[in-house]
Design a protein that fits this description.
Blueprint (H helix, E strand, L loop, with lengths): L7 E5 L3 H11 L4 E5 L2 H10 L4 E5 L7 H8 L7 E6 L4 H9 L5 E4 L4 H81 L2 H32 L6 E4 L1 H10 L2 H7 L2 E6 L5 E4 H17 L6 E9 L2 E7 L7 H5 L18 H11 L3 E6 L5 E8 L2
Parallel strand pairs: 1-2, 1-3, 3-4, 4-5, 7-9
Antiparallel strand pairs: 6-8, 9-10, 10-12, 11-12
Helix pairs in contact: 2-3, 3-4, 5-6, 6-11, 9-11
Length: 378
């Protein structure tokens, strides 16, 4: 057995001649310590680092088995070898059952045989030590991981609180801006100034975008904190879709897109109306946003096992590969080729999870993006 440093082995025997023979035989391979009594052997174990214990059985005051039994509590990891010149089966049975010996050797021992037993005992001891070291490292890593997880949970809590804070702090001045815009629009309608009307349109569009961000931030914080009162009701898929679609007719007309719809004979589905409306509206809004002018958007509704599925396809650039790998990460790009930081896909995922539903995204073979919303059948 190859070792950089010598193992230290302790041999206990009341006969000095036996001690000297043992030490002279094995001193080149091991660091050999000897003791001529069991009591001296116990003292050496307390004061020296020892890797293996060997002892003779027949000794005055304390025999070898009793000595080995005394070492169990303080040094359970060490292997023990009993050397005896007698066929004392009772002593051997006690040694095996109570002293936990590794092996016993009969006198007169043969050098090669004893060396093999010692090497095997040390090899097993070393493997046990390495295994314990690995277990300790694993425990340390687990503690580090627990600490990191706790820090991540705290960070997530702070992030949620931050979203709630910015939503609260921005909403008050935002309400003032929106009120002022409404008053200006009324005045401009009376005076008929096109240039100022254009500026008002830009201001209104920006305010609407900020309002949408705040609404998303509030819903994310409420859902993650479990503070949103979800009201599950049964809805007709076609009536639900028509209500959402009616609000987007003007936007679709301005973009010059056409919308193809197909509704199979599907049963009702269950959802919180406000949250489900937000999800479908977001998916249609993204499809419209990233579709080329005068392109076609396809919207299907069908049943699939226990699901009612809304599927939206567009003819845009599709989702980038990075988004497909991790589509629902909070604060990641909100899809397609847009580089702005968004919340829409992450929020839709939270909403679908809260309904025990799911969302799937992919790119179509012929180009464009595909998004599916899976709601529970009624």
């Amino acid at each position: 057995m190859e070792q950089r440093d010598k193992f230290t082995i302790l041999y206990v025997d009341d006969e000095d001649s036996n001690l000297n023979i043992f030490k002279n035989t094995f001193r080149r391979e091991y660091n050999v310590l000897i003791a001529n009594s069991a009591q001296k052997g116990l003292e050496m174990l307390k004061n020296e680092h020892i890797d293996l214990i060997l002892t003779d059985q027949r000794m005055p005051d304390m025999d070898g088995v009793s000595f080995l039994k005394h070492t169990l509590d303080s040094f359970p990891e060490l292997n023990r070898i009993l050397i005896t010149g007698y066929t004392d089966f009772d002593a051997l049975r006690t040694a095996i059952n109570e002293a936990k010996i590794f092996q016993y050797i009969q006198k007169p021992w043969k050098e090669d045989q004893l060396r093999n037993v010692i090497d095997k005992a040390l090899e097993i001891y070393q493997l046990r030590q390495e295994n314990q070291s690995l277990n300790n490292q694993l425990l340390d890593k687990n503690k580090e991981l627990e600490k990191i997880n706790a820090e991540l949970l705290e960070f997530d809590k702070l992030k949620t609180e931050f979203l709630s804070l910015i939503s609260h702090e921005i909403r008050t001045p935002l309400n003032g801006i929106m009120g002022s815009v409404d008053l200006l629009k009324q005045d401009m309608a009376a005076e008929g100034s096109n240039s100022i009307s254009t500026l008002i349109y830009i201001l209104e569009t920006s305010v609407n975008r900020l309002e949408k961000f705040l609404l998303s931030a509030e819903r994310i914080t409420q859902l993650k904190a479990g503070n949103y009162d979800i009201r599950i009701e049964t809805h007709s898929p076609k009536e639900f879709f028509n209500e959402v679609f009616t609000r987007r007719i003007e936007d679709i007309h301005c973009k010059g897109c056409t919308v193809k719809t197909k509704f199979d004979n599907v049963s009702g589905f269950t959802a919180d109306k406000n949250l489900a409306t937000f999800c479908l509206n977001e998916i249609i809004d993204n499809a419209l946003k990233f579709s080329p002018p005068k392109s076609q958007i396809e919207i299907y509704c069908y049943q699939n096992e226990n699901w009612v599925v809304f599927e939206v396809n567009d003819e845009g650039s599709g989702f980038p590969e990075k988004t497909l790998r991790n589509p629902f990460q909070l604060f990641a790009s909100d899809g397609h080729s847009d580089q702005q930081i968004g919340l829409s896909l992450a929020l839709v995922k939270l909403i679908m999870d809260s309904h025990n539903g799911k969302i799937e995204i992919d790119n179509n073979k012929n180009g464009g993006a595909m998004v599916k919303l899976f709601f529970q059948k009624a």
